[in-house]
Amino acid sequence: MSYSVTIQPNGITFAVKEKETILEAALNNNVALPNRCQVGACAMCMCKKQEGEVSYHLDPMLTEKEQNQGWIFPCQAFAESNLVLTYSE
To answer: What is the CATH number of domain 2-86?
Structure first.
């Protein structure tokens, strides 16, 4: 199963496969997303989820407030539905 991820405001869309992080899927589809460490420590890839659901194998290094506001780490997040993400705020 795969889901669609759309990055706003530029409307770039790519597919993410099961067991593939959102960042892995982006890089595999030649979509350049901000990243450095790829393990959730640097927070460079942090973005806001506007629509959809994600899951993590390990608890993300995000506060409860950040998670409630929609912030995610694409390097650690797995899509559980189609997603709309934004890097502009």
So the answer is: 3.10.20.30
Integer Cα distance of 48 and 67 in angstroms: 9
pTM over 0.90: yes
Residues in Cβ contact with 66 at an 8 Å cutoff, skipping those fewer than 6 apart: none
Share of the chain above pLDDT 90, in %: 79
Residue in 40, 42, 20 with CA at minimum distance from that of residue 31: 20
**CA–CA–CA angle 32, 29, 22 (5° rounding):** 75
Kindly report, residue by residue over 4-29, the tens digit of the pLDDT: 999 999 999 999 999 999 999 999 99
* Residue 27 parent element (H or E): helix 22-28
Bridge partners, residue 16, by sequence: 3
| Domain extents in the chain | 2-86
